[in-house]
């Protein structure tokens, strides 16, 4: 099975592109979705996060409260990552679909070293002004949170230099055609 890492900075189009792979029948593991499972009531992150961030956890993890904690103290994000990233890695290791190709949608693929477990990496990217407009259009997103998250991500230019494949997510139909071409390329050159 070819393991294709899918990454890109915040708002560059990972989820949208991952959905196109899924629609084409390719199994997708999604790191952000894994975090949602871990934060839900009964999820494996709930207990450890209750101990570290008591105000941000009730039955499950309250993301708004977590963001408030990070906004008040940026070192909180480092502590949060120390708890969450090993649990995310365990969830990813448990994903073993029977398929020729599988996609791993991981925002922090390079930052966490997860690229080492991939056969190839697809970077999704877009011009900075488009990225910014997309992210700031989200409810609850602020300039400050955008800056905090961006500062913890490898710059887009560095990701471009390291990726095997690059798609500019300017327009949906063009992206879909590139996704389909990449699936054909990867599965015929394995
Ligand atoms: C900071 C939190 C509370 C924000 O929650 P929110 O629902 O607003 O955003 P969401 O989880 O959908 O993430 C949106 C995007 O933010 C970026 N992002 C999230 N966490 C991080 C991080 N630790 N470092 C850099 N960028 C990040 C990614 O591009 C991600 O796709 C949440 O992202 C979180 O708990 N992050 C820690 C876990 C983590 O590192 N997740 C990244 C994937 S493993
Ligand atoms: N190929 C595309 N064509 C047009 N718009 C796109 C395309 N890809 C993504 N978008 C738009 O950009 C925004 C961000 O896309 P998406 O949520 O897929 O990004 P992401 O990289 O998963 O973001 P995050 O890092 O925050 O999880 C959405 O509004 C989406 O509709």
Which strand-content bin applies to the residues?
A: 5-15%
CATH architecture: 3-Layer(aba) Sandwich
Counting structural domains, the number is 1
What's the CATH class label?
Alpha Beta
Identify the CATH homologous superfamily.
P-loop containing nucleotide triphosphate hydrolases
Enumerate the spans where pLDDT stays under 50 for 5 or more consecutive residues.
Answer: none
As laid out across the biggest beta sheet, the strand order is 2-3-1-4-5
Number of helical segments with 4 or more residues: 9
Largest sheet: 5 strands, parallel
Number of strands: 5
- Secondary-structure content class: alpha/beta
* Secondary structure: helix percent: 40-55%
Please tell me about this protein's structure.
With 190 residues, the chain is of the alpha/beta class. It has one domain: P-loop containing nucleotide triphosphate hydrolases (Rossmann fold). It is 51% helix and 13% strand. The protein has helices spanning 14-23, 31-39, 46-52, 63-72, 75-93, 128-136, 143-151, 156-162, 172-188; strands at 2-7, 28-30, 101-105, 120-125, 165-168. A five-stranded parallel β-sheet has the order 2-3-1-4-5, sandwiched between helices. Helix 2 (31-39) packs across helix 5 (75-93). The longest helix is centred in the middle third of the chain and has 19 residues, at 75-93. It starts with a strand and ends with a helix. The model has no long low-confidence stretch (mean pLDDT 96). The protein binds dephospho coenzyme A and adenosine-5'-triphosphate.
């Amino acid at each position: 099975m070819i393991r294709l890492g899918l990454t890109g900075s915040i708002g560059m189009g990972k989820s949208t592109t991952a959905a196109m792979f899924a629609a084409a029948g390719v199994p997708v593991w999604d790191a952000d979705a894994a975090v949602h499972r871990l934060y839900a009531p009964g999820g494996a992150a709930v207990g450890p996060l209750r101990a570290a961030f008591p105000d941000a956890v009730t039955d499950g993890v309250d993301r708004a409260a977590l963001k408030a904690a990070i906004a008040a103290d940026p070192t909180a994000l480092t502590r949060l990552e120390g708890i969450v990233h090993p649990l995310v890695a365990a969830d990813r290791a448990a994903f073993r679909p029977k398929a020729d190709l599988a996609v791993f949608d991981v925002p922090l693929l390079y930052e966490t070293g997860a690229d080492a477990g991939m056969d190839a990496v697809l970077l999704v990217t877009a011009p900075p002004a488009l990225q910014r407009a997309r992210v700031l259009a989200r409810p609850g997103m602020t300039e400050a949170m955008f800056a905090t998250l961006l500062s913890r991500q490898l710059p887009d230019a560095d990701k471009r230099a390291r990726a095997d494949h690059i798609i500019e997510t300017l327009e949906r139909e063009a992206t879909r055609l590139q996704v389909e071409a990449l699936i054909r390329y990867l599965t015929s050159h394995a």
